[in-house]
Amino acid sequence: VVIQNNNPQQQQQQSIFQAGKELTVEQALERFRLGQESLQYLLDHYDEICQEGGDNVRRYLGTVGFTSGLYGISKVLKTLKTEADDIVEFSELSEELMAAINQADGSSYMAIFTTTSTSGVPPQKYFDDAKIEVKRAKQVMNELSKQLKL
Predict the structure, then answer these.
(1) Cα–Cα dist 63/57, whole Å
(2) Which of 42, 63, 89, 111 is placed for a possible disulfide with 54 were both Cys, Cβ 3.0 to 4.6 Å?
(3) 57/41 Cα distance (integer angstroms)
(4) What is the mean pLDDT of residues 96-117?
(5) Cα angle at 48 between 97 and 37, to 5 degrees?
(6) CA distance 46 to 97
(7) HEC states along 37-81?
(8) Rounded to 10 degrees, what is the CA torsion of 99, 148, 61, 46?
């Protein structure tokens, strides 16, 4: 199955992420904004994206493939930490963001296998759980934006 990706934000070149190469603050700020846009796009089109399966949700979360604006977000956050108003608050929010993304990723992953499982849990339950975490990630990114004065 070929997944059509109509989100221009996910069609960005990911060449700035190279082993051993640090991001500039400007690159990190741009990537942060792209991450916010990817999350918003995911929320705006969530049901449609879920129809293509759990890996498609994970693709938008940046945990599968490298087309999402969230791809490499941990490196982005590390670069931006020194730009924040409160480095401790920024670090805690960064951990919260990564936890939300990881939880959404895990739930989306579970949705892939639930139809062949004997658990009887429908995929929609996992997609609903993932959406809660995506909303939490968006809220945390908004708080991180405030720390960065964006």
Answers:
(1) 9
(2) 111
(3) 11
(4) 93
(5) 40
(6) 19
(7) HHHHHHHHCHHHHHCCCHHHHHHHHCCCCCCCCCCCHHHHHHHHH
(8) 110
Rounded CA separation 10/67 (Å):
5
Q: Which own/partner pairs from 85-91 qualify as long-range (CB within 8 Å, at least 24 positions apart)?
A: 85/146, 85/147, 85/148, 85/149, 86/147, 89/147, 90/144, 90/147
Question: Residue 15: exposed, middle, or buried by beta-carbon count in 10 A (0-12, 13-18, 19+)?
Answer: exposed
- CB atoms < 10 A from the CB of 19, how many? 4
Please write the tens of the pLDDT for every residue from 41-80. Answer: 999 999 999 999 999 999 999 999 989 999 999 999 999 9
* Per-residue tokens: 21: 């190469």
Cβ neighbours of residue 108 closer than 8 Å, sequence gap 6 or more: 54, 55, 57, 58, 61, 126, 127, 130
d(CA 72, CA 126) in angstroms, rounded, equals 24
pTM above 0.90, yes or no: no
**Which amino acid is it at 147?**
Q
Question: CA angle at residue 15 from 98 to 109, to 5 degrees?
Answer: 35
- The contacts of residue 140 (CB under 8 Å, 6+ apart) are 93, 96, 97, 100
